[in-house]
Amino acid sequence: MSEVARLISPIDGSVYAERACLDLGQVQAVVSAARQAQAGWAALSIAERAKYCSAALAALAAMNDELVPEIAWQMGRPVRYGGENGGVQERGQYMINIAEEALKPLVPEEKDGFRRYVKHVPLGVVMVIAPWNYPYLTAVNTIIPALMAGNTVILKHATQTLLAGERFAKAFEIAGLPKGVFSNVVLGHATTEALLASGTIDHVNFTGSVGGGRAIEKAAAGTFMSIGLELGGKDPAYVLPDVNVEHAVANLVDGAFFNSGQCCCGIERIYVHEAVYDKFVDGFVDLTSQYVVGNPLDASSTLGPMAHARFADLIREQKAEALRKGAKAHINMQVENDRAGSPYIAPEVLTNVDHQMGVMREESFGPIVGIMKVRSDEEAVALMNDSNFGLTASLWTPDTDRAANIADQIETGTVFMNRCDYLDPGLVWTGVKDTGKGASLSSIGYGNLTRPKSYHLREKI
Question: Could you give the angle at the alpha carbon of 365 between the alpha carbons of 90 and 225, nearest 5°?
Answer without folding.
Answer: 65
